[in-house]
Batch of 3 targets.
Target 1
Amino acid sequence: MSCCGIDLSDKETDLLDMQRDITIQARWDGEASVWLATSEDVPGLVVEADTWPGMIHEVQLVLPELLEVSGQGGDRLSLTFKAEEHLDVAGA
């Protein structure tokens, strides 16, 4: 389809293929013995799980619904998980 000399067919395809990249910060909470996942890309995302795979699974369940409720749903998602663990080590 074209309008005013602009081919809109590529634009429609681009919109259908949009992908949203989201970075998930995950850290181990040793006191609670859980993985905690949050994201600066998705305010309100807070997930806790006993295991790394469990945390990823919970994020995959919660994230699309959270984005939909906030009016940001519909895009394909690409998730990058970044892990962090803090350890206190006695001096040698």
Note: Strands lie at 2-3, 6-7, 19-29, 34-38, 46-49, 76-84.
Target 2
Amino acid sequence: MRSIVATLTLLCLVIAPRVAEACSVCGAADDKTKNTFIFTTAFLTFLPLTIGGIALFLFIRKAKRIDNEIDRHR
């Protein structure tokens, strides 16, 4: 079964080379598509890092506030 799928995939790529070149990563796309792809990639790379950084900042700020309240009550 795997060999049939591999053979069909290879056959599709050989028969339709323009489909294989349609990817913006391959360099076949126009500049607008490339720029959009690069922007989207950067955005999706930094989004989780930003969310994690904000969560860490809020956690530390909350911990400092709690620590200050404990010190005030002593």
Note: The radius of gyration is 25 Å.
Target 3
Amino acid sequence: MDGKLIVPTNWDLDLLRRVAPLRPAYLYGSLAAEASMRTMLELPEVTERQIGDFVERARKHDIKLLYVMNATCTGNREMSEEGRWEALQRCQWMVEVGFAGIVLANPLLMEVVKKHFPDLELHVSLLASVDEPRKAIFFRDLGAAVIHLDPIVARDFRRLRAIRSAVDCRLSVVVNEGCLLHCPIRAYHANVISHSLDSIKGRYHVDYCYYKCAAQKITDRTELLRIPWIRPEDTRVYLEEGIDHLKIAGREKMGGGPSSHSSWIARTAEAYYKGRCKDVAELLVGIDGIRSLCGASIEQPDIHIDSGKLDGFLRFFAEGRCDMNCTRCRYCDAWADKAVRIDGDADGYVEQLESSLEGVRLGSYWTGAPQ
């Protein structure tokens, strides 16, 4: 597994020490205020100098760093003189600090970066939604070094194989996805987070999408199996199919400070490096509890996905027998009955989520960072 993992970083030097023996290909992260798929409320506050020190130390372990700027929408700032200058200045800093590459979802910014900074590796974000060969060819032709595939491809092996045969750049799949399969509000969520800096500063930021999806995952436990995550035990299947990298999500695990959740990141990376785990739910993002609109913690039921009871689960997908139409198939339902357990007051949790959602609908909330 050496050189295969792509691991999130919270810029904690102790984390670097713990993951270095796993020999990841890359670590990735950003400044908290950078427009990306994580809000400044979820990321640790670090300085450019701290990041520069981290990159230098990582280089001594032969670990490359990626800087994340994968906002799906910037309000067209990339077309303005000021916005273009800001992006180019950020790229110049990356080069000076020693970043190997940049993760982007915006195609215009991809072209701008490749023109002015050709030595920076271009990594196409999974939020570019590359899920079929023609999209992959488009981004390869823009100069992509690595395409991070749309998570849906992890369970659609026909598409995965077609993409692999269409392009010669490296391909990556995210292994611990926690978002709903075919989530109907995924694109909206990405745009909400892309503009979250303004809403947080304006004290009106609220993650409506998380409230909405969290309830669905608890109400129907089969949704937890439909999510296109990959068991550590099954990663070899993807490597044999020609996937080059296995990306671990989890930058949002870091809002408690630079050392927050270092243990979770290290444990998750080790599970995928060794190819085994007991409970898949412990590795996933997007299934954590959430606070109510008034800031109080909502007690979430404990979710367990027994990895040992899922031997053979992936074969159905690898053999191309899944048509992604969950309305007429109960394959995942049968496996969920065996492997998924939800302990706690699920009904009470959903009621609290619905109460917060009603507050969003009515506009009776006031959130964000203090003035």
Note: Residues 5-206+226-285 form a domain with the TIM Barrel fold (CATH 3.20.20.70).
